[in-house]
Write a structure and sequence with these properties.
Elements: E1 6-10, H1 11-14, E2 25-29, H2 30-33, H3 36-47, E3 54-55, H4 59-68, E4 73-74, E5 78-83, E6 86-91, E7 94-97, E8 110-112
Antiparallel strand pairs: 1-2, 3-8, 4-5, 4-8, 5-6, 6-7
């Protein structure tokens, strides 16, 4: 079966001096590596500049971002995407399925723009 090509997107390519340098890169598809909305979320996360973000008021705020092709931030720690009817968070080695825990339902953990 055909394997999609994965690339490393280094944070140093997005930011000169990141406030948070871990992880130093993300393994992503070629499409995701070129996605400017994802770049903006990663820059906000690694620079701790959440000036364009606010705490989500309801779940509709989160899903409105998903449907617009943008990425909310969870616990000021993870960029979250919505792919194939699954919420996924971004780690260094790629997108992982987001486990359903009690914390995920607390709106104060979500940042949206």
């Amino acid at each position: 079966m055909y394997q999609k090509k994965k690339e490393k997107l280094f944070i140093s390519e997005l930011l000169e001096d990141p406030a948070v340098s871990y992880p130093s890169y993300y393994i992503l598809s070629t499409y995701a590596c070129n996605n400017e909305m994802l770049h903006a979320a990663l820059i906000a996360l690694h620079s701790f500049d959440f000036s364009y973000y606010e705490t989500a008021k309801s779940y509709t705020d989160i899903f409105a971002m998903f449907h617009a092709g943008t990425f909310p931030i969870y616990k000021e720690k993870y960029v979250v995407g919505y792919f194939g009817n699954k919420m996924m968070y971004l780690e260094s080695n790629g997108w992982k399925g987001m486990p359903t825990t009690e914390d995920i339902f607390k709106m104060e953990h979500w940042l949206v723009c």
